[in-house]
Amino acid sequence: MERAGGTFVVTENDKRPTELRVEADSETRFRDYADADADWFWELDPNLRFAIVSKRQEGRSVVHEQDLLGKTPWEFADADPKRDSMWAAFVDKLERRETFRGFRIALRQDDGGFVYWRMSGKPVLALDRTFLGYRGIATDETVDAIHRVHLQAQSNDYQITLDMLGEGVAYFDGRERLTFANATFRKLIPLMQTSFATGTSFERIITGIQPMIIEDRRKKGAANVVPTGGAFHWRFTDGRQIDGEIRPLPSGGLAIIVRDHTPRPENTASQQDHFQFIADSPQAFFVQRDGQVIYVNRAAADIFGYSTEEILGRELWKLFDPDEVARIKEYAHARKAGADVTNQYTLNGLRSDGSRLHHEVFVSTGVWDGDDAIQVFLQDRTKEHIAEIARSDSEARFRNLVEGSIQGYFVHRDWKILYANAAAAKVFGYTVEEFVGLSFLELVSPEERNLATDIRRRYLAGDVDVPDRYELNCIRQDGEPVSIETNGRIVDWDGEPAFQATMIDVSRRKKIESYLVRAKEDAERADRSKTEFLGNMSHELRTPLNAIIGFSQLIKDQIIGSADPHYIDYANAIHSSGMHLLELVNDLLDVSSIESGALMLNDDDVDLVELAKTCERMLRPRAQKAELLVSVDTSGGPLHIRGDDRRLKQILINLANNSIKFTKPGGHVIMRAYQDQEGRAVIEVEDDGIGISAEDQKTVFDPFIRVDSAFVSEKEGAGLGLPLVHALAELHNATVKLESEAGVGTKIAVIFPKERTLEQMG
Fold it and tell me: What CATH number does the domain located at 600-756 have?
């Protein structure tokens, strides 16, 4: 089975649907089916299409086998995984070969109805782990679903019926949270409509109406209703009286039933009490008739910053913002004419000091002093209004930041761009007006559209491993390529999910990176060419050098006969120069071999002390000629390590040669081999020569670099000694430590890893 473009292509090696049907009688499948508790069974082929639907489902569903075969579950359900996050997650699970349980789908029928299924399944794999498809069970839940719809319809009917009652009814669940309140209840209880939101607590509603109750017959002075049952009688600041009772229900909830019990005509004696309660109430309240305030309590006067005497008789319009006067008058005229006018709204008011107020008002028409008047309950919402303005300002500032940002920002749904700032549009060469409405997927280069689609699919499927930031190659309006770095997340946009993305144009950075990569590759090619050239030239030079050295040695040693003394001197000079040149060629060959990785170590048991002694004997003639003393410090005794004897000798000779070369006559060169406090083997060469400045120490281990001084310029060498030491040390996993001071001397140590030290004998 192969996968192409997000679908599976069945090859000749895959099982065909007919073969799967034959296999249905196998013992393994029989056990799977026999253990299942379901209405019917099904199988999907490797392309996730129904290949088998058991006969058992016939008669249990209006869907038949032929309706399913050859279709994917989402094709049959007429669903689009690209637009439906639930189906996207389901398809993602199938493509990951994961078991799933209890996936519910709704299948539309030709008659417009639906069939509801609950499916569970698991992947089927061959012995060689080849994916054969899915096998699973399904249960038809259509009857249950229809039953739920009927129950919901009945519930709606009950609510409509309750709304038609003349009594107010409210139902609270077992947690004392409001579940339902009919229209009469909301009308009789003088709270704002937001107070009757589903989930509001019993305690909050009772606390909200306490300031407006001037009498509770069971306990004067305050409402004392508790959710344990019983009757109550309330008298409110606006003159209304309500009888009610609380009834506990078997379910653990409770119901409140209220009735309007306002007496008519009003009793003059009780009116005085009524006025006094209103005057002392913390609930702001005033009455106006024909635009003039005819009553106000202290709470309302305090809000406006006046005394009650200063407000009485004042024109209502002067207490509110001039821009609100027309609306207030319009509402007042409509109420007087008996029209249906909203009784709850917000107004902007004015304090006595000129500062602005923001009120929420509840307005009703009633009788005051024997004549119709408009009664107003007032809530000061100024602080909340200021906070809302601050929030709006904050949103505006944020919007300005987004609009003015140099970083691109846009939102798209189903790839269609819904919003973009100027920076995002500019990256693609559009104006904002041109950019909004385009398909973002079409702006992505064709070769990367599958990548963008896959990232979107994984986001919708809830994949937590989607990269936070990624790069895409896109196309500008003028056809030029542009590279963007973007990150995105799913947000709620106008009530529906959408993708919010930020991006920056990284085209220049990508070009610089490309230039740097090419420059690095060019440098590496040049370095390889240099190394190959040095290696080839070294081999080519050694052949004639061997002849020069060999024949000059025959002449100087007079092996084939006596020669003129002058010729012997010439032969000595030729032999000496040839040997020097051979050393340079060998160093070049070693450097090129190390750089190309061709040099291998031949590890053996090496005594570093004996190695130092051998090197001292080899270097003694050169030291005597330079009028120097070369010695070996043997105080530490034998020191055996695992290493390449020839290469270790090369390290020590190069270090000592370097010291001899750069130490003036009369100087001293000391070679040491010892174990440090950490048990590591160390070879060290110290001299009292010209030393190396701090600046030159940074480059002495680079090939072909020589210290710049009059003394050094007189010496022969290609600048390969210390670089070769460093390279050979690294082959032994050793480190090189340099200590030097100009005019004082130099000490160079090669420190080998502890695991190379062998157990010392004797």
Answer: 3.30.565.10
